[in-house]
Amino acid sequence: MTDTFDFRFDRSAYERPNNKFVCGRATEWGKPCARGPNGDGTCGGTTECQPYNSNGRWECRRPAQNGGSCATGPSPDGTCGCSLPPCVPRRSLRQFRWRLSVIMVGVVVALIAVFTHLSTDGNFFEGAVRLAFLDAGELTGSHSGFTGAKGCKACHKNHDLNPSVWLASVFKYNDLSKRCVDCHKFGGPSNSPHNANFSTAIGNPANGPESTECTMCHTEHKGVDANISGLNNLQCAFCHKKSFATFDKGHPKFSEAFPHFRRTSIRFNHASHLNKNFLKPEVKDMVPESCTTCHQASSAQRSVEPLGFKEACAGCHADQIAPRNLVVLNLPEFEEITLDKEAVIEACGRIAEDDDDDEEEEFESISEDELNSIAAFLMNVEADDHEAYSEAFQELIIAMTEEGHVPLPDLLSKAGIEDGHATLLAGLNPEVIKRMACAWAKNQEYELPSEPEFGGWYGDLLELVYKPSGHADPVLKAWLEMAISINSDDEDESERIADMRHELLSPGKGAGACIKCHAVSQDTEDGPLKIEWNYHRDSGQSYQTYSHGQHLSLVNPQGVKLADPNQGCASCHKLDVKADFASGYSDFNAKTFKSNFVSIKKQACVQCHTEGRVRQDCQLCHDYHKEPGFTDQVTRNEN
Amino acid sequence: MVASRVRLLMIAFAAGIIFYLLLIESENNRTRLGSAAELTGYWLFGMMVFLTLFNLRKKLSMIPLGPANIWLALHSIGGLLALTLYWLHTKTLWPLGVYEQMLAALFYLTVASGIFGHVVQKICPPRLAQSDIEVIFERIPAHVAEIRQKAEEIVLSCSEETREDTLGRHYLDTMSWFFRRPRFFISHMVGSQKGRQWVRQQDATVRRYLNENEKVWLDKLTEQAQFKNRIDLHFALQSIMKSWLLIHLPLTATLMVLAVWHLLVVNVYAL
Hints:
A: about 650 residues, mainly alpha, B: mainly alpha, 9 helices
């Protein structure tokens, strides 16, 4: 063993690994000096010791492990007599490690500074490079296109603030959801569960959050193709009172009405059509081949919309519209005519009969009818009150002989119909009105030169009629819309409105036969009436989703392909021939009705959507959001 | 030894419990539509701070902060816990954002260097103990110089006493290379006996040309060479034991800076 292996302090050097420098001789595998480098990195070993002055005499202080006092001894001036050539001390491993750490940290801090805030004004870097130290990952494809010129600020309001404010915002709450609703909109409050204000506690109040934030479920920066809209079954079950493991085990039964919670817009009785009407020989060539002849199922989601009137109904029902005229005015029975004959002659011209003034004959009215309900409503008189309507109607006749159609808009206005005159009276020919009024003024029937063939206004004997031009006639629609929208606080007027409404909206006799098929509904007890001109999409079940189109490529457990036009639809939609379908349209309430089809049971879905077969998670059939959509900001791309 | 293993197992068990509870709470949080990443993120950051404190503990050895071996066990198992927390936090092996990828790379490198260091600290000390000598790393240059000096003295003495220069020429041609500085670093590191074999080979090569008097001096020279070979072993193994920290600590420091930056960015942009 060499001496230096002795670990006693007085026999070996005392090592200081914490020192910043090590002897340069040692780094070159020479014998290190005993004194070692100075703290500032200079060589401390140019002499072997630092002599000590003892009572005016310099004594050698070379350590024992280096040979003790030297023979030369110190110089008279106190310098060591054993000088050594100086070395170049080097940094110790620990010091090198420290410097490396500081350099790496410094580089990272510098990179952060350069790639973020320092570049805000200097504009050293642009786009993705500039944001490298803020970028948490790519946005999904659907979002990346809408950040636009605003960039990060489209969602993060603190982005690009000056450094001190930016740093201060660490301690402030950052509500990202506020920015989400700049583009996204819903059918209810964005921050309440399911965007709804539930009147009853369907959730579990102890668990569910009172208010929600978009980021609870949707977190971005997970890549272009990331799915950021997924909820799992446990998350649904956490809030909902009725919790269950899977759809096939525990999901509540479907309601008795499912999926027919509301009557259809069109009063189409599938049972009577399929079992009775379509069997008639005269319609043999017009009978639809299958369900898909009328229903567009291939691309349908939850609702399978029927084709329009022209494609689905016109074959049998087009001819039923035109004969159902709208009679706006009819000449009622008068007990006497009090018209100013001179005025009539002036307006209509003299005819031979006018010369028989002196002959006093007993007046016999050409009409024996009462005033019709529409005219009674327009003139605000009782339909059977001769005295009341005689004067008013005769004044109207005189006005029409003089001015043609001009009194009619005034009549509408007096009845409280302020708007839509142009549509209500579209195509009305003043000459026809004048000639008809002249005939009526002379207590005569107005005779048409020929039978009316096309749609439009006609004076026909004792009536001013509108003949529908076909399906969706705008004039007829305007009169029907007027009939359901007009109201009055006066009891008598209300009664006359009700009579008019009853006549126009009569399925059997109403003008144009519109109401024979189109339902008139009232969503709430006090709500307005509406004629369901278009297909009704049931927004009441807005959390449910179903794709008819995707199911059409499948085969049911009995081996029937669901796309089969004859049997496929019947796999789920079974006709209920005993259902009292017609009674569902006897009033304005759209929800008290009986569907033509048997309700669909949960078991129909469980046949396939069960463990080990087809997925059955909540979100397969239920949407979280209510009526999700986009604000105008998205379409205008204002970000 | 047994107590140490029991202690290690207890710490590992405690870490397992912490991870399990966090996993459960994280899943519950996610089910409640809460921010599971926030919970695991702050735990991960806290764990990283705790792991960093181990270096402080070494610097403040004068303060009674508990035995170093317990700190080492906490540091080692805490490091593995941090790795699992990282995966629990990010839910991915490799994130997407540029700086998050840097953060991930630093995290993985730090953990990998830590694991390497832990393995080195387990393997090297027993091998050093087998060398039968104890050497302070900082003194190795002095030992090498001293051995070289002794070797040269042996060669000079041999020449003076035997009046032969064979050993002297052999030293100048071959052995001086060996004595100049530590040799066979990689061989010693991987546990090879290449150094010892080299010394024996040189001894056998020159021995046939020496007379009996010279062989006595050759034996002394070979003894010094073999001793130096053991010093070389210490140099190689202790260098590794010290050098891995040269990677681990700078990585840790950089990682902590980026972790703090991540904390700031998340709080400014998302929370």
